[in-house]
Amino acid sequence: MWNAALALAGGELARWTVVSANDEEGVMRARAVTRIFRRVDDVRISVTLDGNGQTRVDVVSVSLRRKRDLGGNARRIHHFMRELDAKLGATEAQILDATREPQFTA
Description:
Blueprint: H1 2-12, E1 16-22, E2 27-33, E3 40-49, E4 55-63, H2 72-88
Helix pairs in contact: 1-2
């Protein structure tokens, strides 16, 4: 998961570059440049394990030097997650909804 996320943020996604990456902490920081006005946004990606031992990927995107992003940060996060799922070959059944408690059956 870490290597796939690092590859995406490190150049596989257009206009993204990795600024720092610490695999021991599971945190990387990247910069993404907007398409139209070439504005720089800060992206933080963390890859950790949740309480059930499932891999968890959290992404935060913040616009630098502007108050409104017109939904650009949300679109960037969704795009990153879709690309990560595709890169890993994840199916709908394998993707957990972070807003719901996992349902385990015996």
